[in-house]
Input
Amino acid sequence: MNDEYLWNKTGTDSEIEGLENELKAFRFSADQPPALPARIEVLPEKRTFNFFKLGFAVAFAAAVVVAMTLIWLRTPVNHPEKRSEFVKSNSENVAVPISPGPFSTPIMDPPMPKPKVINFKPPTTNATRAVKITAKKEEKLTPEEKHAYDQLMTALAITSNELKLVKDKINGRDVERTAAPDRQK
Amino acid sequence: MPDGEMTSDLFFLARGETKTAAAPLFTRPEALLVDRVRTGDKEAFGELYRMFAPMVHGIILARVPRDEVDDIVQDVFISAYKNLQTLRENGAVGGWLATIARNQAADFFRRVKQTEELSENTQLDDGSKTKAHEILATIRSCPDAYKETLVLRLVEGMTGPEIAERTGLTPESVRVNLHRGMKLLRQKLGIEV
Output
C-alpha cells in the first residue's frame, strides 16, 4: 500500500484506485444549495434569570436560618428555660454569685470568671486567729491599703473569735473554760 | 482506542474551535464567506454549500442509509443557516458543520427508532448486493473515526490535508485514522497486506 497516495494522491496505488473507482458512484453530485427560507425567525435569547436558581437560593437561605435558630435555642445559656436549670445546677458546685442580669446577653457569652481561691490558714495563736488571704492583688496594695487590709483582717479575726466563744457557750463548753481559770486560781 | 481522537476533537469542535492552526481562522476564505452570509448574502451561502457539501455528505453517508443522505445534507445546511448566530469563530465553520452533520445523523436514528425497530439492513445494507455496496457496508462497519475518514477519502475523493481542513481535525489525526482505517478495511475485505 502506498501511504503517500492514500494521504495526498501522489504516486500510484492500484488497489486504492480500484476502491475509489468502485465507490465513485456514491460521490456527492448535487451542486445546487437547498432552498433557503425567505425569512429567518430569530429566536429570542434565553432569559438569564432563572426562577429555579432563585427558588433554590431562597430555600437554602431559609434552611440556614432554621439551622442557626435551632443551634441557638439548643445552647443552654441562650434558652430561657434551660438557662435557669443550667444556673441552678452550676450554682450548687460553684459559689460564685451569678449576676441576674436581663436576658439580653449576646449569643456568645464570655467564659465565666474562675472563682478566687481563698486559703484559710489555721490560727497561729489561740487568742487571735490571723487569716491570711493569698491573693495576687495583695502584692499590688499601697501602704495605706495594706494597713487598712490588716486592720480589717484583725477585726475579722477578733469577731470570729468572739463568735466562737459565744458558740462554745451555747454548746456548754464554757463550763470547762470557766472552770479551768478557777482551778488555776 | 480508535474513537479517542474523534471524541477529543469533537470536544473542541463543540465550542466552535479547531485544532488546525495553519492559518488564522479569521483570514480563511470560509470565514469571509460566513461574514457575507451573516449579512444575508445568499450567493455566499451557495459558495459555502459547494465548499462543504461533499464533506457533510461523506460524514452522513458513513452513517445513514444512502436514500436518506441527500435529505439530511439539506437539513444540515438549512439548520446551519438558521443557527449561524451561534457560530463563534467564522473560520471554524467546517468543524461546526461536521458536528451538525453528526448530530443530524444521530437524530435520524432516534427518529427511526421511535417508529420502528432498526434492523441491520436498515443501517448498513441498501438492498443492493453490488461490489460497491459491499465495500461501503464494510466501511460502515468500521469504528466512527475510521469510517468517516475513509468515506471522505475513497468516496468523496478528498486528500488527507483537505479532510483535515474541512472537518477541523488535525492532519496527524486524519493521517493516523486513514492509515489504520485502510488497514482494517483491507483485513475485512480479505485483501492480503
